[in-house]
Amino acid sequence: MLFFTQCFGAVLDLIHLRFQHYKAKRVFSAAGQLVCVVNPTHSLKYAPARCAAAQTSAEQGILPPCHHHEAVHDPQLVPCTCPLFSCPWEGHLEVVVSHLRQTHRINILQGAEIVFLATDMHLPAPTDWIIMHSCLGHQFLLVLRKQEKYEGHPQFFATMMLIGTPTQADNFTYRLELNRNQRRLKWEATPRSVLERVDSVISDGDCLVLNTSLAQLFSDNGSLAIGIAITTSKVHNAEAEM
Amino acid sequence: MLFFTQCFGAVLDLIHLRFQHYKAKRVFSAAGQLVCVVNPTHSLKYAPARCAAAQTSAEQGILPPCHHHEAVHDPQLVPCTCPLFSCPWEGHLEVVVSHLRQTHRINILQGAEIVFLATDMHLPAPTDWIIMHSCLGHQFLLVLRKQEKYEGHPQFFATMMLIGTPTQADNFTYRLELNRNQRRLKWEATPRSVLERVDSVISDGDCLVLNTSLAQLFSDNGSLAIGIAITTSKVHNAEAEM
């Protein structure tokens, strides 16, 4: 009996996801845009230090083995850039993507324009929604974070970072767009490098910031759809559209 | 001697304003855009009730006489919509603009696209920057407010309201745009009617909201330039640009 109840629940979940996917596609109606449903992850960064794997709400309890890189103090090595965990891994910038993918189970998506559909926005802070985005020959890390900068008043912070150097990051412009109920909010900026750390970008407030009330206005049934586009800076002219 | 010092100060202020005007024009480079320098007004709404005139920083101490409208309880009369003062005036919607202009000394500007240059952003909350904007045959009230929703953490709230009914307001879309240092933030929405009151729009958070850190990123020498555009909703298609 329990088995059938669970099966029925899973089928309902699938229908719900399909419906959310359809709605997000309808809002962000440009042809060929990929809608990616992103589940929340409760940040374990300030939990007791261990090399934990990404525990998405769908995969809780599955902990792949740690792959520690023995410290050789090579100046070209960078620490793990995963915003979720205090991970002792370090390696060359070129292998950060595969580390994030394999150890921290962060999904990677292709395409110049995608829709990031963050589910369960009501979950308490601190919570993160994270994907990697492969585009224009580079990989980007998109982080949406719910955090209480002021106690009792959670806010949402969204930013896109290049998995590359600050010099490489200067060649790009990213755009985050919310669009619902005849309201539209757009944030455009040069991505920061993951070497600058997500935590500093968010504490500097140099990203898209949403109060809970604004996040609710743009949410649909607890999910927030963020349209994402990346262009090279040569194409982008910050003053052209005014 | 004091006279010459003051004259010299006034000339310096003029040069500074001219320079700010030039810079704002350079950022918002579309031809024909009017740049309007808006001085802050300390909100007196919650001060002892009186029919006070707008005390702009340039005009402090000048209090024009009150023009009370004798209450006749005509259902077509609306209260004073000035967000700054608890004013007992009431009148027909058609004369709200002249009341705001004459009694509260709120400036009015013409043009479909203007640049609102708010000065002295560092002043403590509560502070308002207000103008009226005449466009497409209607008048709009633009309010930028610095307010502490959470004690010790001032935020900026910007909204545009139609001096008209909610049904008339539904025919328009307004856009507020910040653009500086390779960052751009755009808010687009249907204006609310002044009959819905600025205070409720701001407490609902249904407007452009800026943290102090974000406001600083977009400010230049203590002034914030906001590009404003109003279109009719028929022209605007919320899903076209995605």
Automatic annotation (TrEMBL), chains A, B:
InterPro entries: 7-in-absentia-prot_TRAF-dom, SINA-like_animal, TRAF-like. It catalyses: S-ubiquitinyl-[E2 ubiquitin-conjugating enzyme]-L-cysteine + [acceptor protein]-L-lysine = [E2 ubiquitin-conjugating enzyme]-L-cysteine + N(6)-ubiquitinyl-[acceptor protein]-L-lysine. Pathway: Protein modification; protein ubiquitination. Its EC number is 2.3.2.27. Keywords: Metal-binding, Ubl conjugation pathway, Zinc, Zinc-finger. GO terms for cellular component: cytoplasm. GO terms for molecular function: ubiquitin conjugating enzyme binding; ubiquitin protein ligase activity; zinc ion binding. Belongs to the SINA (Seven in absentia) family. E3 ubiquitin-protein ligase that mediates ubiquitination and subsequent proteasomal degradation of target proteins. E3 ubiquitin ligases accept ubiquitin from an E2 ubiquitin-conjugating enzyme in the form of a thioester and then directly transfers the ubiquitin to targeted substrates. This is E3 ubiquitin-protein ligase. It comes from Accipiter nisus.
